[in-house]
Design brief:
There is one protein chain. By secondary structure, the protein is of the alpha/beta class. The protein has 15 helices and 16 strands. The protein folds into 2 domains: 209 residues, Acetylglutamate kinase-like (Carbamate kinase), CATH 3.40.1160; 123 residues, VC0802-like. The chain is globular and about 70 Å long. The two termini are 43 Å apart. Bound molecules: aspartic acid and magnesium ion. Magnesium ion binds next to loops.
Amino acid sequence: MRVFKFGGASVRNANSIKKVATIIQFYIDQPLLIVVSAMGKTTNALERLLNLKNGNLEHELNQIITYHSIIIEELFEGKNPLAEELRSIKSNILEQLKNTDSTPEELYDQVVSQGEIISTLVVSAYLKKIGLPSLWKDARKYIVTDASFCEAVVNWDQSNNLIQSLTDVLNKSIVITQGFIGSTKDGRTTTLGREGSDFSAAIFASCLSAESVTIWKDVPGVMSADPKRLPAAITFEELPFREAAEMTYYGASVIHPKTIKPLANRNIPLIVKSFDNIDLPGTRIHKCKIDQLPPLIVFKDNQCLISCQVTDYTFIDESQIGIIFSALSTRNLKVNMIQNSAISFSFCLDFKEEKVLELIEELGKIFEVYYNTGLTLITIKNYDTDSYNKYKNQKNVVLEQSSRSTLQVLIKSTPLIASEQ
Ligand code: ASP
Ligand code: MG
């Protein structure tokens, strides 16, 4: 059997959903489980609701519902077979937002998960309309997680048993389910972290021993750089699992970082294919060995560089580094680059403003803390002489580091890079 994942861009309007159906029709020779994200930018819109009240809240929510209704009516010749479902989703969201008992994180998951519920109802209904046997399944009944809302951790044993029970259904019908969402043992909705639908596809594939997972994207495959930034970027035909996993670690957003591990462990290939041009071969991420990969360049914007200095002429030691890391880990903040000197410890991380400012305040009680924001971290993996020289000798570098295969430079601004191309 195969697992497909369609992201928000692939279901952002009626035409894209029709395209999804066309793609599916090509692949019904085998059982198929399809993971679908929320439509277009719905997740962002649902996130915004959490900060709104009363009239503004109703207005924004109505806009989300209208956006979906228009798509549905276009797919169903002016009719809306899901009007009742939309009404109940709307009233559930309003109800949840009034509920002051939940933590903000739990509330987030209850509300934001609804985007995936709507999108899958639409796709499933449309497939049925055009005569494709499809069954809508609630991913929350299959993906069991702990209660770390917003970044829930999967309980693999329990999820495995539940997901395997889908095998019979899959022999009779295409299964449509949601990415990104799961639930605790006691039935509370959780989410797996933003952009987590790729990971959901990998969970289903791993538990069902799928032949492959295909992620349909708006790019021809995995590319050597973001083509919007470096138009000369090339598409890889194939990549070893490890290489792809490392790319995601450095910030390549083409695949969610948690996706590779479950697939690599079970040796299930991941194919990244173009949604717009299905004749293109895409990229196959699998067990393989490639001797000479071209340089791979990853840009990570919105970085913050923090330097902690000791104030009394003692040197930075392990216990001080320990303090810094425990302050980071209690806030679930991850560092992207580290540099240590006698009296200063510097690290860069994503600038999640509220959490990072709180961190800086806490570290300021012990160290003299300096920080810069508005930085971009550029990682050049498998660099060659040209790429090494080009990126190393830039102006505006505030921190750099290189190993035998990877160069990382943290720079002050990005326009310089783009205009150099
Ligand atoms: N809809 C969720 C998000 O936008 C999950 C996903 O698209 O993968 O983050
Ligand atoms: Mg999305």
